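Dissemination and training. As part of the outreach component of the grant, students in the summer workshop were shown how a complex can be specified as a set of sequence lines and then modelled as a single object. The example used during the hands-on session is reproduced here so that future cohorts can follow it. Participants entered these lines:
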Amino acid sequence: MISVTLFSLALLLARSANAATQLDLEAIQAHFTQALIVPALIPTFDPTAVLSAAFSGAEASTGQHMDQKAVGPKPVVTVSSVQDSSLSGNFTIAMVDADVVGTDYGADGVNRHWLENGVTISDGSVSDTSANVITAYAGPGPASGSGPHRYVILLYAQPSTFSAPADLSAPVDGVHKFDLNAYVKDSGLGALVAANYFTVEVGTDSTSLPVTSAVITSTLASAQSSAGPSGSHSGSASASAPAPSNPPNNAVAAKIEMTVAILAAGLSLALL
Ligand SMILES: *[C@@H]1O[C@H](CO)[C@@H](O)[C@H](O)[C@H]1NC(C)=O
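and obtained this result:
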C-alpha cells in the first residue's frame, strides 16, 4: 500500500518534470517589466505557462541576444503550464518586433513577424498541423545600427468565439505593422497564456537607450516565500548576480526531483 502511494508520488513528480513553477512565471513577468515590454507593448502580463523557443535545438533564454542567422528559421515552441492549468483547445501564436527599449509604437503598431490562429499544444509543443497561418514565421531583420530589437513571442488562448478581422483572416505575405492590442481585443482572443522574448542586433548600436536592470530571481515573491526564515538574501553581492532563471536549471532540478522520487519508490519496495 505504502509502495503504491510512493509509486504514485514518483509518477506525479516525474510528470511535474515538465511543469513550470510559480517562480518561473514571476521571473518572466519581472523580465517583461524590466525590459519595459510591459506596459509599452502589452498593458499587463499575468502568464499561466512558460513559453520557450528553440532555434535548431538551441533554446533562447529570456532576453538573450541571438544571432540573426540562428533565428532565421521558425523555432520549435514548447509550453509548460504551472500545475494543472489547462493547455487544451486552440491558441493563437504571434511574434512581433517590439523594437528597442523606449520605442513609441504610435498608431501603426509593431511589425508582425508571425501569426497563426488555431495552433494546439501537443506533448508540450506548439503544433500547427491544423492551424490557419496568416503570417508565416519571418525571421528578425532589424536595420543595421538600429539597436537591440526585442522579438516577443506571444501565445493567446483562442476561444471558439474568436473571429479574425477581415484584413487578417487570410494569409498576408511579408512583415507588416499591426496594432497587436487592437487585434487581440477586436478578434476576441482570450488570455495571454505565455510569452517570451529574445533580442537581435545588427551592426553597431548608434542610439542611446535607457538602461534596464537584470532580474534577480532571489528577490521574487516565490523565492522569498520558499526560502523560509533561514534564507538570507540580504547580501549586497546578489545585486550583480545574473538572472538564474534559465530553463537548463529547471531541467536539472526536475531530473533531481525525479531521481529522488524513484529512489523513494525503490526504498519503499525494499522495506516491504
Ligand atoms: C479549434 O479550431 C477548430 C477549427 O480550426 C475547431 O473545429 C475546433 O472546434 C476548435 N476547438 C475548440 C476547443 O475551440
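The helical segments are 2-15, 22-34, 37-40, 180-187, 221-227, 247-271. Students were then asked to discuss how this feature might be tested experimentally.
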